[in-house]
Amino acid sequence: MIATTDTTIRATLLFLAGMALIGLLYFTRELLAPFALAIFVWLIIDAFARWMDNLSPKFPYWLALTIAVLTVVGLMVGFILVIVDTVGDVVTEAPRYNERLSEIFGWIADKTGQENLSFGSLDEKFGITEKINSGLGAFATTVQGVLSEFFLIALYVVFLFAAQSSFPKKMDDLFPNANRRGQAAKVGVRIRLSIEKYLSVQTIISLMQTVVSYIGMTALGLDNALFWALVIFVLNYIPIVGGLAAVAFPVIFAMVQFDSMGRVAILAGVLFGAQFVIGNTIQPKMMGDSMNLSALVVILALSVWSALWGGVGAFLSAPLTVIIMIILAQFPTTRWIAVLLSADGNPDLDGDGEPDMPSPMPSM
Q1: Of the residues 44, 86, 131, 200, which has the fewest C-beta atoms closer than 10 A?
Q2: What does the alpha-carbon distance between residue 289 and residue 137 come to, in Å, rounded to a whole number?
Q3: SS3 per-residue string spanning 258-304
Q4: pLDDT of 74-91, one tens digit each?
Q5: What's the first-to-final CA gap in the chain, in angstroms?
Q6: 219-263 pLDDT per residue, tens
């Protein structure tokens, strides 16, 4: 009876702690979301710099780090310039797009026999404009938010690199006991390797899909193909939903631009084919078991982190959930949650591919 009572108390306390943590993440999102994004930017830059440093012993880390930083900054500046240029093109071509919309609805009205069918009538009935603006507005708000906090994120990244050399000393001070320090170091390495592999593989996969999509869009004459390629690159970081949106947005735009639905169908086939082939053949082989999250958990994590942190949460939903799973797997009381989150029921702590059962932490 006492054991049952203790279990109930622990479960209640665990539930309350989880609710408190969710509330804390939500109400401090303005502070935590940029810092979390800065950590991931730091990991990307550091991994890129260490990769270049390992190419040759004559290639110093400081030079590799400088090249990595300049590369990331250059890509962000280029992204901003493309967005500005695209906005100008859309404003210029707006009359032509409006005329094409009228033609599309005129054709639909002729085929369906509904003489009063128009974009305005459908918009009034189904709220199409409101839904489109809502979706585009959410994406634009996320991009604008990241860009507006660029200097804050950059400042975080600078201080993370400045403090990087002191991390080993802090680990020694934080965990004086050698066994506990080794356990914490193992978990830290597992987290870092998982996140670095996820980000590197996702970047390569997104780049491959972007290049194939850009070639197809350019060959078919889609306006602002470079902008749509960048949208595809960014959206592919969002699990499942991002890939679908990356195909849908350019295809919808193509329906407005192209006079021939055949060209729209070809474009849709190229974009969907690239997503399907790369996402179902190359990506699983490259990603391996680094994430070890079930498909259901990926969807739930996307929903939860999007509600908590918006677009940044959607962007980081998978790696953040992996971090939580690895940490929960450390403690016998919460290991069952990590088991439910994992894809195979064996959350791996040290990355050796073998299930690790946690042992009680030794006292300090």
Answers
A1: 131
A2: 35
A3: CCCHHHHHHHHHHHHHHHHHHHHHHHHHHHCCCCCECHHHHHHHHHH
A4: 877 777 777 777 766 666
A5: 32
A6: 988 888 888 888 888 888 887 778 888 888 888 888 888 877 888
Residue-level length of the chain: 364
What is the pTM assigned to this prediction?
A: 0.73
Which neighbouring-strand residues pair with 342? 293
Distances (CA, A) of 94 to 205, 212, 215, 231, 257: 33, 28, 25, 20, 10
Looking from the CA of 78 toward its CB, the CA atoms found within 13 Å total 10
Between CA 32 and CA 268 the distance in angstroms is 38
CB atoms within 10 A of CB 262: 9
Query: CA 230, CA 227: separation in Å to the nearest integer?
Result: 5
Among 351, 356, 294, CA closest to 321:
294
38 exposure class (CB count in 10 Å sphere: 0-12, 13-18, 19+): buried
Q: Which two tokens stand for residue 183?
A: 């356990």
Residues 243, 275: contact at Cβ < 8 Å? yes
User: What is the rounded distance in angstroms from the CA atom of residue 173 to the CA atom of residue 181?
Assistant: 9
CA dist 329 and 193 (Å) reads 16
Q: Are 30 and 50 in contact (CB under 8 A)?
A: no
Neighbour count for residue 152 (Cβ, 10 Å):
14
Q: Look up residue 330 and give its two tokens.
A: 């450390």
DSSP string, 306-338: HHHHHHHHHHHHHHHHHHHHHHHTTSTTTHHHH
